[in-house]
Structure formats: C-alpha cells, structure tokens
Amino acid sequence: MNRTRTFGLVAALIAFAVLPNFLKSYGVYLMTLFCVYLMAIFGLNLTVGYAGQMSLGQAAFLGIGAYQAAIFLKLGWPIFIVLPVAGIVCFIVGLILGFPALRVQHHYLAFATLGFNILVYLVMRNEEKVTGGTFGIPGIPRPSLFGYSLDGALPFFYFTFLSVVVLALFLWWLLRSPWGRAFAALRDNPMRATSLGINITAYTLLAFAIGAACAGVGGVYYAALVQFIEPAPFHFSASLTMLLAVIVGGSGRFFGPVLGTIIVVLLPEWLRFMQNWYLAVFGFAVVALMIWLPGGLLSIPERLRWKGAAK
Amino acid sequence: MKRNAFLLTTMFAAAFAAPAYAQPKPIPIIGLMELSGTGATAGTNFDNGVKLAVKEINAGGGILGRKIEYTSMDTQSNPGVAKALAQKAVDLGAYVVMGPVFSGSFIVSMAETKRAEIPNFTGGEAANITQQGNPFVFRTSFTQSTAMPKLAKYIDDTVKAKSVAMIWVNNDFGKGGRDTMAKALEERGIKVAADISTDPGQVDFSGAVLKAKQSGADALFVYTNEEESARALRELKKQGYDRPIIGETTLTGQKVIELAGDAANGAVAHVGLTADAPQPAIKAFDQKFQSEYKYRSDHNGMKGYSGMYVVKAITEKIGKVDSKAFATAMHGARISAKDAPGVLLDVSFDQNGDLDRESFLVKVENGKQVVTAILPPVSAK
Question: Which of A29, A134, A279 lies nearest to residue B171, judging by beta carbons?
Fold first, then answer.
C-alpha cells in the first residue's frame, strides 16, 4: 500500500468516526447498522471472494449469532463472553456444515447453503420455547463495557465501529499470512494449488468457517442494536442481499465489502426522497451496475487504466 | 458602503416582512408504513386512509388553525428499518407517529417513541402490544383478545360447530390470532380438529385445504394476511369445501374479495371496520376514498382514516399541540361519531390504549360484504 492510499484510508476512518457527532439518532443508527452488516459481509467476502465459493447461507450465521446474543444478553452474560461464544459456535457450525457441503463447489454449494439457511430459519420460527417463534425476542439489553453502559446511540456506535476495525485488521493480517495466500491460490487455480501441496478441502473449509464466524459476531451486534429479533431478517433473501453487497463492491477485493455495504444498506435510505420509486430505482441501479461493471465498483480504476491503455 | 446599505435594507425588510407573512407552523405527523414487502397491502391502505383524513382536515383549516404536515416512510415490513425510521420520526419532531401496522415492527418502533414521549398509533392487532405498560401506545383497531371471543361465540351459538379446523399464517399476527382463538374455542368446549400452519407469502394452499377437509371439522377458521386469504379461498372453492368458512377481518377484506373473485362468496367474518357498514359516516368515507384512490378501502384504510381523526378530536379537546398532554388525554377518552364524524363509529380508549366500539359480522355475497349483524361494544354488555 503506498503512502497516498494509507493517508486516504486514515482520513476516511477519521471522517467516519467523527461524522456521527453531527448526526441525529437516525443517522447514527444507520451508521451502526452499516458496521454490523459490514462484519458479516467481510466474512462472506472471504468465502466468496478469496476462497472462490458461493455461499447463500450467510444470513443464517448472522441469525445464529443474533439469537445467541439475545438469549445470553438477557441472561445477563457479559459481552466479552457472548462475543467469542457466538464466533466460536458459528465457526464450529460452519465446519460441520462445510465438511459435507464443500465436497461440492460453486452453484451446488450455493444450493446446499441455501438449504441450510432455510433450515435455520424454520428452527428460529418454530422452536418457540427457545427463539420466541414469530414473536421474536423483545427487550434485548445493550451490553456494558467495564461498567460503562453502551445504552446510548453514540457509545454503541463507537463500540461497533472499533470492533469492525479490529475485525478488518484481523482479516488483513490473515490474508497476508500463508493461509490467505493459499485461499487466493486455490481460487485462481485449484489444480495448481494442489500441485503445490495445498490441501484444498482443508483451506476452503477454514475460509468458510471463518466467514461464518464473522457473521456470528456481526449477529451479536445486530441483536444489541435493534434490541428485538425475529426470524425475518435472517431469511435467505438477506443472504442474497449480502452476496449482492460482495459482488457489487468487488468480490475478492479487501475494501469491496465497504462499498458493497454502502450500496446495499445506505443507498436505499438515501433514495428515499424518490418516495414510491425508491426501491425500483435501487433495483435498476444494481442491474445497471452489474451490466457495466461486472467486477464491482472497485474495478473502476482498472477499467479506466485499461481503457486508457487501449487508446 | 453601498453593500452595507443594501444589507441594512434587506435586514429591515426581512424584519418587517417576517411577521406579516408568518403563518402558524404546520404540525408534523409521521407515518411509518409497510409500503413494500409482505405488509405492503395493509401498510399502503393504512397510509392512504391517513392521507385522505389529512387532506380533509387541512382543507377544513387544520387542527387548532395549524395545518398538518404528514410524511410517510416505508419500513419495507422490516423491524430493523422500522426502528431506524422511528428514530427519524423522533428526530423530525413528530407530534404523533402513525404505524407501523405489523405487530413485530411496531414493538420495535414503540420503544423509540416511548423514549421520546410521542404518541404512537398502530394498526397491529397482536394482543401483547398494549400489555407492556407503554403509555404512548394506542390502537386503531380491536385486539385479537377482543375479537376472537366474539367470533368463538358466533361459532358456538350460530354455526353450532363442535369442531373447527384452523388455517393460519405463521407470523406474529397469525400465530397470535391462532393462540387466542384456540383458547376462546377451548373455553366453549369446541375441539380444534386440525391445526394447520402456513407460510407468509405462501402460494399453494392445496395441502392445507386438503388437511382441513380430511379433518372432518364442522367449520373452518382461516386467519392469514390478505393475499394468502384470497389464495386459500380460491383453493377451498377448487376443492369443493362445503362447510362454513369463518375468518376475522382479513378474510372478507375488500382486497381479498377482489383477488379471490367468486371464491370469496359465502365466507363469514367478524370485522372491526368495513366500508359496507350501514352508518352514514362510513358510507360517506367509502365514497370519498373511492373517488380519491379509485378503489375501495379495506379495514386498514379505515383504521388510518379514523385514527387521524382521533388525533384531531383529542388535540382540539386539550386545546394545544402537546404530545405528552395528548397521551394523557387519550386514556379513558370517549369520542362520539356525532361530534367528530371522521372517527366513523363511537369509540372509547381504555388505560392500556386499547379501543372499544361496535363491530360487525359480515358475509360475502355476490362479491360484496353484507353486514349480517352489528355486535355491541364489549363495555356495553
């Protein structure tokens, strides 16, 4: 990373951290929601963009994390226990699901994860004793940190924001480690990766499970943010939306999820001034983007360079 | 110097002009509505009802001489979005918040409006909304715990059914209604012969109807959202179901009749509000709504319309635009349709924010709701 880019990144982070102070509660809420989805979408980018697998089950992991958080936070567990528990449980569920499912790849895997998502959704809806069924779980308390309450919109935003930065740093490190290079190697050319001694199954499984754990952690923040959960936000259509975010942003690019999440979470809100048309305009915008920029928003610089070179 | 003179002149002009043109500030009222997603039918109708009332009230000079500025925002039938918009409504300084209609979304939004002490009207019917001691929550329709016992009485006394099959939609609305109905039936010793759960947005009802038929129950209770009700009715007709089909509000809704066509004929339901009711205020509403939107309102449109007029009546009663005083005045309030025709029927609110008024038993005949009986308010007994 060169100096200009580092500078730009730091400036963007500072701007993002300062901005909520000038916003009312609606704006702060949206920015927090953005951070929450960003965690899950960072995770999905690892699976889809780096390990090259299609997953349509990310919302299920988000939900598993959220329901655990709802139940444990209501029991009064501290956030420092709830977070790792949610991450580890999702990691393990990811391993258990991935082990048989990753025998198949690409769109077959997409269907396997889709089935898993529907299964999880049905459990959330029908196991009323545990999950509250369709009535959901209301009144989830916001956690506190070292005795400092995160009840207010701003403290909770900063907590979520710092967490997403930490998660991003972890993923940044992971992708630059031998493991991360192995992910990319098996995405670009599985056969060559095998010839280099990379165990494809083990590495794909690892990427999938880490991606799931990211969503699980995101789920904890989701439950604490909305303070009410029900099955609907974890329907497989939410998985599709997250996949859309990865692809629109630029699949397999580190900052792709950031742009993708802006498009998916914030753009519909910005388009609200169009009243009845806003969702239609959003849909058209996505279609147009996919036709002209199949590589996602972050492929624009390359496209421009390529065009420049062609002239 | 020249510029300073200009500035001075402008400032003087502004200082004198401002009071001359000052108009009373409009009253901000925000609607959180399901304008897309699974709740779109209910939300759009509710929203249109509110808009019609606002238009009329503004044409008549507003409330206490101030116009209403109504803005509706789409929750996408998603509680997470509803929560964001409830905060936006608070940020915008809403006097009263209307909606959401769906119970799940409402439970999230009402926590926000409570914190800001802004009255919040709902179209939701789930019983738990008003059981949480939130003093800023008010209904625009019956709760399931008022409606279901009335209906169970009808099934017992008039239909004389000994067993009932139930087809219900598995969301908070359907499950809540199913639980309340099952309890009401049990109290009367009526057996639930088949308990059939269906999905929100379900298209194929052949399995559900087949199960209901095979149960051999004396009657069928259908409790689903509008579009699903129409699909269920079509399938019931297709399979030649010949026992009484009974529902609550949604089953005989205007939208359902339009979608189900012939298949809706013969269905019976208890409704809190219907555009086919004989009261002159409702007839007048029906005509105005049709000329405004070119279609007939269902009960949700009437909820929104009458709810907005409740806001007007109570605000005029307290004589000021004050959210907190409004909420206090709402508890125990009685509004008669004679004084305020916009509320459509005499209505009273209790300490929980639940409302009470007359209701109707209707039957669909030749594609129209026909009122077969007017049931008195619960408190009138």
Answer: A134
